[in-house]
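Session log. Operator J.P. requested a structure for one protein chain; no other inputs attached. Running the standard single-chain path with token output.
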Amino acid sequence: MMARFTRAQREQIIKDYVRESGANRYDPDGFIEWLKDHPENPAYEWFDRRHAWDTERAAHEHRLLLARQFTHGLKVDFHVETIGRNGAVSVKSYTIPAMISPISGRRDGGGYTFSSADEPEDMDEICRQGARALESWCDKYEGAVAHRGGNINAARKLIALLAPKEQDEAA
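Structure written below.
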């Protein structure tokens, strides 16, 4: 039983589908329909373990996805006051996600908690997730940035800034 496919394996499965189905592109809906009739395909078992063929269970999984998406985009505003050398006060406003799903709890079912800029653990989690998201973005779009003559060095510096420090992970 294969837990995960490599990128090369997924790419080959998709190429096989496009070739065998006669499609000239990857159509997710068409792929699912084609895969139903190809239980020998290694992707069939992968979808089977995710309840793709059990309509009732798949509907429940879809509702869970919708419930998770329901939290996306909710924000909390917070303000940082700075007193300058001349005594002038400047205030900058920022936003953070209103709810977070701590990475450490996801294997046990996870869930969402309300976040607060006043809680160091919440801010650490938001930074950790920000580093992961930015790393994912870099992995996906580095070639596009290079195509336009740029590089992602500044993003890599932000990832290093956001990523948990060794002493944070030991705590």
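Operator note: Residues 7-69 form one domain.
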